């Protein structure tokens, strides 16, 4: 009974949003330009909604609370890194956008191709970009599965839940596209604010009286959870600094973010968004409250189960429709960003690998067909990763950042350093990725640093050294940055 | 001069949220009930739009 109420509420929320999105996009014809970069016509408000929609995902909702529950203060990095990302990309947005506008670019590898004039490099970047997004889609899938399983009160087993989640995500992408995503995220954001005020404010108030008394109690029960560990300890202070730098500098470096930047109407739309989006990060405070509350109310959840912490509180102490509302909102937080992630990585394969490399699907219809096929293929890869590698949501996110952050030097030097060479960028990306993946896979973290950060620093050093040693092959900068 | 100012307007909040954090890694003093570390991060997130607004002013975008 409870399960059907909760699942029913989820169905209403998801179907309602899809209907709204379809009704809103019907006015536009779906060319690849429209499908992938929204016709390059998004104004400040619409872009804000799109960015908020794809940046604040089910990770924000579940993963951050789960980490607060398990580790405490290390989760605070999640509030800081986005803000650092906005500050850093304030300086890079205009260059990236202008390149896109002047050359009619659709994807991240297009940008690399135009700036560095190397098919080999843009192909490597395409492959890494697509592979790096797979764990991010897995994260959304995994979260959607958790919402379905919790709402189903055990009636849906996790594997079935994941398969249903996969089908939902694919269906959602097929019917919406990027503009539909932005419309859907309007509803998503409104519901998220409601759901977060409930889990992050109503729960602490009801159980503890106020956030201050919540922290008094956390302090009494787990005094070590409210600060970071010593400098070089695992998830200690150096880990925090290196993780904020890695994820902040890589914040807009993924293919989905480059597509979002291209979809802006002009440069100032992007600058305004960099200025206003940090406000959204404050929502994280409510998530931290929810995670700490769950730690005191339902202690003892371990590993990936901690990602369900505050849902456990809701399902134990509140009526089924409340659980349905919270999990339904969560489901939108998984579906909406998945659309942007799948579309951008699928379009990279369709345009940069199938089209540019193999000459397949060069007309609009062909490209659209391959994009849709790749949405399914990449979705299946994500489902496969979920089946073989169950881990916490934060670990999946960090896996993605280890990959996409390595593209940052290509934008930074591409925009501001005329002397940079194609060989330097290629060597930097390869060395950075190999180092980050090797360190992460072997569980090596010298001085407690984030392995992806070590990869990124090495990447930058390699770019500079190789570029200075090798003479630039041709004049590469088509458009120097105006000051 | 303008170059330094632009650099500072970005570097101050960026640094406060990243490299400065090991130096403010305390629970006390609590601010509005929050542990100091969390209050520090929240404070800099709140004031960052102000810094970026000034940056945009200095650069003449608004």
Describe what you observe in this structure.
The complex is a heterodimer of chains A (483) and B (62). Chain A has 483 residues and is mainly α. Chain A contains 21 helices and no strands. In chain A, helix 4 (58-70) crosses helix 16 and helix 8 crosses helix 17. The radius of gyration of chain A is 22 Å and the shape is globular. The model of chain A has no long low-confidence stretch (mean pLDDT 86). Chain B has 62 residues and is mostly helical. Chain B has two helices and no strands. Chain B has helices at residues 2-17, 36-58. The interface between A and B is large, with 41 and 32 residues.
Q: Tell me about the largest β-sheet of chain B.
A: none
Shape of chain B: elongated
Query: Portion of residues in helices of chain A?
Result: over 70%
Number of extended strands of chain B? 0
Distance between termini of chain B? 20 Å
Percent of residues of chain B in beta strands?
Answer: under 5%
Spatial shape of chain A: globular
Structural class of chain B: mainly alpha
Q: Which quaternary structure do these chains form?
A: heterodimer
Arithmetic mean of pLDDT of chain B:
93
The SS-based structural class of chain A is: mainly alpha
Low-confidence stretches of chain A: none
User: How large, in whole angstroms, is the Cα Rg of chain A?
Assistant: 22 Å
Helical segment count of chain A: 21
Radius of gyration of chain B: 14 Å
- Which ranges of chain B are low-confidence, i.e. pLDDT below 50, for 5 or more consecutive residues? none
Question: Beta fraction of the residues of chain A?
Answer: under 5%
Largest sheet of chain A: none
Separation of termini of chain A? 63 Å
- Strand segment count of chain A: 0
In short:
Chain A is an all-alpha fold and 483 residues long. Chain A has helices at 2-25, 32-37, 44-55, 58-70, 77-90, 93-103, 108-116, 119-151, 158-208, 211-221, 237-249, 255-262, 267-281, 283-297, 309-317, 320-358, 364-388, 393-404, 408-416, 422-441, 451-469.
């Amino acid at each position: 009974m409870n399960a059907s109420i909760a699942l029913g509420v989820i169905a209403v929320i998801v179907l309602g949003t899809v209907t709204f999105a379809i009704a809103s996009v019907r006015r536009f014809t779906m060319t690849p330009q429209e499908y992938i970069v929204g016709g390059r016509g998004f104004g400040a408000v619409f872009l804000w909604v799109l960015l908020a929609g794809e940046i604040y995902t089910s990770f924000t909702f579940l993963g951050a609370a789960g980490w607060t529950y398990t580790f405490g203060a290390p989760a605070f990095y999640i509030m800081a890194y986005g803000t650092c990302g906005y500050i850093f990309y304030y300086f890079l947005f205009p260059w990236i956008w202008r390149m896109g506008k002047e050359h009619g670019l659709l994807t991240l590898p297009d940008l690399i191709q135009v700036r560095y004039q190397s098919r080999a490099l843009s192909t490597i970047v395409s492959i890494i970009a697509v592979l790096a997004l797979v764990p991010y889609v897995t994260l959304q899938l995994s979260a959607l599965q958790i919402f379905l399983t919790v709402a189903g009160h055990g009636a849906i087993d996790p594997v079935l839940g994941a398969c249903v989640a996969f089908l939902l995500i694919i269906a959602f992408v097929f019917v919406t596209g990027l503009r539909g995503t932005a419309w859907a995220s309007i509803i998503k954001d409104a519901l998220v604010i409601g759901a977060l005020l409930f889990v992050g404010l109503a729960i602490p108030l009801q159980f503890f009286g106020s956030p201050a008394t919540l922290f008094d109690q956390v302090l009494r029960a787990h005094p070590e959870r409210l600060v970071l560990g010593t400098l070089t300890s695992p998830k200690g202070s150096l880990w925090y600094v290196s993780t904020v730098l890695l994820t902040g500098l890589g914040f807009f470096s993924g293919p989905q973010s480059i597509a979002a930047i291209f979809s802006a109407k002009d440069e100032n739309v992007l600058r305004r968004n960099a200025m206003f989006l940090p406000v959204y990060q404050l929502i994280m405070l409510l998530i931290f409250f929810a995670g700490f509350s769950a730690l005191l109310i339902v202690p003892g959840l371990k590993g990936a189960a901690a990602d369900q912490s505050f849902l456990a509180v809701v399902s134990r102490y509140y009526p089924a429709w409340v659980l349905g509302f919270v999990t339904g909102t969560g489901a939108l937080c998984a579906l909406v960003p998945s659309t942007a992630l799948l579309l951008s990585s699928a379009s990279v394969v369709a345009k940069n690998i199938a089209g540019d490399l193999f000459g397949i699907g060069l007309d609009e219809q062909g490209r659209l067909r391959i994009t849709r096929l790749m949405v399914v293929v990449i979705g299946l890869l994500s489902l496969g990763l979920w089946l073989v590698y169950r881990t916490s949501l934060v670990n999946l996110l960090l896996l993605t950042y280890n990959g996409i952050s390595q593209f940052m030097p290509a934008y930074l030097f591409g925009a501001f350093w005329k002397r940079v060479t194609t060989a330097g960028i290629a060597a930097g990306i390869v060395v950075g990725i190999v180092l980050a993946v090797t360190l992460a896979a072997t569980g090596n973290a010298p001085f407690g640093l984030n392995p992806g950060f070590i990869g990124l620093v090495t990447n930058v050093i390699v770019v500079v050294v190789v570029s200075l040693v090798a003479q630039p092959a041709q004049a590469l900068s088509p458009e120097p940055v105006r000051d | 001069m303008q170059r330094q100012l632009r650099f500072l307007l970005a570097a101050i909040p960026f640094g406060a949220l990243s490299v400065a954090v090991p130096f403010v890694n305390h629970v006390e003093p609590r601010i509005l009930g929050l542990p100091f570390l969390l209050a520090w991060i929240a404070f800099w997130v709140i004031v960052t739009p102000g810094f970026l607004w000034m940056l945009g002013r200095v650069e003449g975008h608004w």
